[in-house]
Amino acid sequence: MIFSTRGYGRTDCAMQATYFGANGWQLGFSGLNVLLDPWLVGPLRFGNSPWFFESRFLQDWPIPPAIDLVLLTQGLPDHAHPPTLKELERSIPVVGSVAAAQVARALGFTQVTALAPGQSHQYTSGSGNHLTITATAGAAVPGQENGFLLRHPDVHLYVEPHGFLDPDLPPQQLDVVITPVVDLGLPLVGAFVRGQTVLPQLLERFQPRWVLASTAGGQMQSSGLLPKLLWSRGAMATATALLKARDSHARLLDPEPGRCYPLTLS
To answer: 11: helix, coil or strand?
Structure first.
């Protein structure tokens, strides 16, 4: 089920979140609908080389209607996925890392804002709802990519899909953190996703009400050399035990792809 925020009232629900798998989310704030790092249709390939890596969802997702903004943390195809972006209206505003903005412009998007770490952009929807987007330093894969702080009147959120926490980001109270909770890596390279490693730091620095597990989920079929070399460390059970050991009040969500979750802050 994919939701729309048209006519969505806050009541006790600060936002809604739908996970698609991999890094993709739809985030519904009051009067504002954001598509984050969407991979919805077609294959995912790195370097257009299926022998190295190719992955497909078992079933493509429908393109959500009424998207106000596309937010891209990285320029890599598992974040700025060209087949998916080609299905979107080119007039939809896009905010992304410098590399992601280059991808969006090359595909013909007409309202593209590139943010380097430390830069901010305020987006105002047609209905007058505001979202302030601040880029933070994310993973270097290999170039500098982004995390984002999102500040809406109803909710403050942080997302970084590789588990690389900007050391210059000060402690602050946040409502929602979207993060991997496992480590993924390659021999000789080491971990390029540091979810298990970063989770204790995120809990300490942000004291979030919600932690949404991302990056490693979704039902897909993968082939090529890369999946055979990948190693994984950690699990949802490990993350749950960490929250319990720290006496954290955060609620940990292991999202079922396609399901819309209302997130309350009470």
So the answer is: coil
Smallest Cα–Cα separation from 198: which of 169, 229, 155? Answer: 169
Residue numbers of the chain with a pLDDT score lower than 70: 1-12
Q: In Å, how far are 87, 159, 218, 258 from 150, measured between CA atoms?
A: 25, 8, 24, 22
The one-character DSSP state at 108 is T
List pLDDT tens digits, range 9-31: 444 688 999 999 999 999 999 88
Could you count the other beta carbons within 10 Å of the beta carbon of residue 207?
Answer: 16
**DSSP assignment of 15-46:** EEEEEEETTEEEEEETTEEEEES---SS-EES
What pLDDT, on a 0 to 100 scale, did the predictor assign at position 12? 66
What token pair was written down for 212? 């949404």
The three-state secondary structure class of 58 is coil
Task: For domain 13-255, give the CATH number.
Answer: 3.60.15.10
Q: Is the pTM of this model over 0.90?
A: yes
Percent with pLDDT over 70 in the chain? 95
Q: What pLDDT, on the 0 to 100 scale, is given for residue 6?
A: 45
Q: Please say whether the beta carbons of 192 and 186 come within 8 A.
A: yes
- Are 145 and 179 within 8 A, CB to CB? no
**Residue 20, amino acid:** F
DSSP symbols for 128-195 = S-EEEEEEEEEEESSSEEEEEEEE-SS-EEEE-TT----TTSPP---SEEEE--SEEEETTTEEEEEH
Buried b (16+ CB within 10 A) or exposed e, 211-226: bbbbbbbbeeeeebeb
